[in-house]
């Protein structure tokens, strides 16, 4: 793990791994989509239940991505490691996309189930705050011209945002919310019927593989960009 913190070793290790991840992502999505449409409709929700196969993985991965961003920010801030900073920066955009997808599909699911597109429920509000942390992280980096100062400021914000993760996760247990409690990771096992559990787990695996593929590709692109930037700076000094 610490050996891969070296950018050269990281690039060498991930070069063959990245296309494999993209291929695995494509296969998992193909299987997951097929299982999602093959599953029967719910006796109460009908075909609306299929939104679950998009919404739940997006919300779960959105949380996990911010955890990765926060941990990377910690190593970037404390140890000043450029690869950790690149990892944090690369996680922001896909994390924001997953969280936005969770909010949109949640609204689409909530309207027929609850009779409204949005309520200031603890779970919904905390996920919206998570999305705003993603946007704030990217906006802060873009607003400061000095990359080192931008990286430090964004890392601090990334660490502050970690406080919101347990609030998102346990909000349905701590407060009386309209959002249903956990049905997958819960004491006593999942409450989902196997016909819904199989496509949901497959789609969650597909989303996770997609994030890893995007993340590694983005980190590799960021490393290459910084190498080119450093090379141009050296050439300018020599000139």
From TrEMBL:
Keywords linked to the UniProt accession: Cell inner membrane, Cell membrane, Cytochrome c-type biogenesis, Membrane, Transmembrane, Transmembrane helix, Transport
Pfam families listed in its UniProt record: Cytochrom_C_asm
InterPro entries per UniProt: Cyt_c_assembly, Cyt_c_biogenesis_CcmC, Cyt_c_biogenesis_CcsA/CcmC
Subcellular location: Cell inner membrane; Membrane
Keyword Transcription among UniProt keywords: no
Residue spans crossing the bilayer: 54-79, 91-110, 122-140, 152-175, 195-217
Ranges of residues in domain Cytochrome c assembly protein: 20-179
The UniProt record lists the keyword Disulfide bond: no
Signal peptide boundaries: none
Membrane topology: Multi-pass membrane protein
Annotated function: Required for the export of heme to the periplasm for the biogenesis of c-type cytochromes.
UniProt similarity note: Belongs to the CcmC/CycZ/HelC family.
Name of the featured protein: Heme exporter protein C
Lineage of the organism: Bacteria, Pseudomonadati, Pseudomonadota, Alphaproteobacteria, Caulobacterales
Gene encoding the protein: ccmC
